[in-house]
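Q: I'm writing a short explainer about Zn-dependent hydrolase for a general audience and would like to include a description of its predicted shape. Could you first generate the structure from this sequence?
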Amino acid sequence: MTYSGRVTVGGPADVHELKDLMITKVAVGPMENNAYLLRCRATDEQLLIDAANDTGTLLGMIGDDGIASVVTTHRHGDHWQALAEVVAATGARTYAGRYDAEGIPVPADVLVDDGDVIRVGQVELTARRLVGHTPGSIALVYDDPHGHPHVFTGDCLFPGGVGNTHKDPEAFASLLHDVETKIFDVLPDETWVYPGHGKDTTLGAERPHLPEWRARGW
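A: Of course. Here's the predicted structure. Afterward I'll give you a sentence or two in plain language.
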């Protein structure tokens, strides 16, 4: 089956099979959050991005192999509703951005700074701090040695724009700047974008609209 990135709450997961990494996407909860399970194909170690909701769905996706770690992209409550239960069930190490960790009720074992590397088995993910949606949101970049990059953006980048900055001009300017300089300026058009809600996109599909986003202010 070809990966589409289109998932619905209560529906099946979608699996993106790369040479070194398997990415499983599922939608959970009333805010239709995306959660992503990353599995290193060489070691079978797993990492979960955003234990957002629906503990049973997430644990079913994780399976008997468990997870070594769970990364919370930012402090907003819809992204960590199942975190405590998932950690209790799996013993996973927790990661969160240094400047958002205090807003997440499950303590972070590892505070993540811009440029830090998070590993799942033999696969490396580079964290990028994107300021504006929250003070400490992090995106995770997987630079696939066999193909194009993949980036998990939380609520900082979606099809059609950056994340909600609640009509705060300074927050919007900050988020757009960080998304441009840390994502668009350094990654190619083929980069696959996995957002915190909704459908996936690519940087190439969104890049032509950056001036439009800047002009409209959201």
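A: For your explainer, you could say: Helices lie at 55-62, 83-90, 169-184, 203-206, 210-216.
Q: Perfect, that's easy to follow.
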